[in-house]
């Protein structure tokens, strides 16, 4: 995905004012970023701004980017603030052991903020990429992107657990925890944005879009194949006083701690059929299972075509009678 964003996306330029906060000139992480300057783009020219001394991150309008899965991890954007960078990799337990207050010296608060940023960014990306999917399915895709297992895996891939400062008695337990690694990742996202108020959000969003591209690609088939299945089925065999019902075929089954499989079937009552099973489908929501049942029904060609012929004959006869009545009225 392209990294560059045009100036107008970050709002109009304005004159520097006395209360503006200067962007930190501190160097970026060198271990995973071979070209840190590429992530800053127009940010070098932008002025940070503040309210009562607190930096605010600009949230630009979303820019559509096509999926572009990469075989390697995209470069890690830098954090332009050494204190933030230190806090991102410091577990609260270390400071508790020292008897000092945590607040801005550990990742506790930053992972809270980063979690919110990740949800917003994931929502913006999938809302744009999948315009035909219902909200329930979009929520499932978002959960796939931001759950602890996914984010923890990214943290390990970028070597975050090697940088983490954790209490000595629990080093192995903490560093092998999906939750802790996910917290480190969330905190880092927040630090990217906070340390570069001008374009930090845009930088994080571009990077995450590239990072998630491979995972998002697997959902494209669902988006195009099942989005209109129910409407297509209704158009082909639906009619007045005809019922196309989606019913639960059996009890839902858990497939993970946060995911459940639902089983739905679609039935027809009308055109001479009563409770006729047309197709079945499985999905991680009732809506998705229903859409897949509709797809299965459309693939049940002999039966669906037979029903469609009956509908066509009925529609033709109805039209003929209506035209006869209109002819009599005008005769």
Main sheet: which strands, in order across?
3-4-5
Return the string of H and E elements. EEHHHHHHHHHHHEEEHH
**Gross geometry:** elongated
As a whole number of angstroms, the C-alpha radius of gyration is 27 Å
Q: How can the largest sheet be summarized? A: 3 strands, antiparallel
Query: Mean pLDDT score, rounded?
Result: 78
Q: Helicity level, as a percent range?
A: 40-55%
Oligomerization: single chain
Characterise the protein shown here.
This protein is mainly α and 331 residues long. It has helices at residues 82-88, 92-98, 108-129, 135-146, 148-157, 160-163, 171-175, 178-194, 200-217, 220-226, 229-237, 286-299, 301-330; strands at 50-51, 54-55, 243-254, 260-270, 273-283. It starts with 49 loop residues before the first strand and ends with a helix. Strands 3-4-5 form a three-stranded antiparallel β-sheet. Strands 1-2 form a two-stranded antiparallel sheet. A hairpin with a 2-residue loop joins β4 and β5 (273-283). Residues 1-52 have low confidence and may be disordered. It is 49% helix and 11% strand. α8 packs across α9 (200-217). The longest helix is centred in the last third of the chain and has 30 residues, at 301-330.
Keyword list:
two-stranded antiparallel sheet; mainly alpha; 5 strands; disordered N terminus; 331 residues
């Amino acid at each position: 995905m392209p990294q560059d964003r045009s100036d107008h996306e970050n709002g109009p330029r304005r004159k520097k004012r006395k209360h503006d906060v200067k962007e930190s000139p501190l160097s970026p992480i060198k271990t995973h970023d071979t070209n840190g300057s590429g992530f800053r783009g127009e940010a070098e020219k932008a002025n940070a701004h503040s309210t009562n001394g607190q930096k605010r991150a600009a949230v630009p309008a979303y820019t559509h980017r096509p999926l572009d899965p990469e075989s390697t991890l995209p470069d890690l954007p830098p954090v332009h603030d050494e204190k933030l960078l230190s806090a991102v990799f410091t577990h609260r337990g270390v400071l508790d052991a020292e008897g000092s207050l945590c607040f801005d010296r550990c990742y506790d608060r930053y992972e809270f903020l980063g979690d919110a940023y990740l949800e917003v960014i994931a929502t913006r990306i999938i809302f744009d990429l999948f315009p035909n999917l219902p909200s329930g399915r979009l929520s499932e895709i978002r959960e796939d992107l931001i759950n602890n297992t996914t984010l923890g895996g990214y943290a390990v891939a970028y070597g975050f657990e090697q940088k983490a400062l954790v209490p000595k008695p629990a080093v192995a337990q903490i560093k092998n925890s999906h939750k802790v690694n996910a917290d480190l990742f969330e905190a880092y996202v927040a630090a990217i944005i906070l340390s570069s108020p001008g374009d930090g959000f845009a930088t994080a969003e571009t990077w995450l879009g590239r990072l998630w591209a491979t995972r998002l690609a697997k959902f494209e088939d669902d988006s195009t194949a099942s989005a209109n299945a129910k409407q297509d089925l209704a158009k082909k065999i639906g009619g007045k006083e005809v019922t196309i019902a989606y019913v639960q075929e059996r009890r839902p089954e858990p497939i993970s701690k946060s995911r459940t499989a639902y089983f739905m079937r679609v039935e027809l009552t009308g055109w001479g059929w009563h409770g006729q099973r047309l197709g079945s489908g499985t999905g991680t929501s009732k809506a998705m299972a229903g859409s897949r049942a509709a797809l299965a029904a459309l693939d049940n060609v002999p039966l669906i075509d037979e029903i469609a012929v009956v509908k066509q004959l009925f529609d033709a006869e109805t039209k003929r009678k209506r035209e006869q009545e209109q002819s009599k009225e005008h005769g």
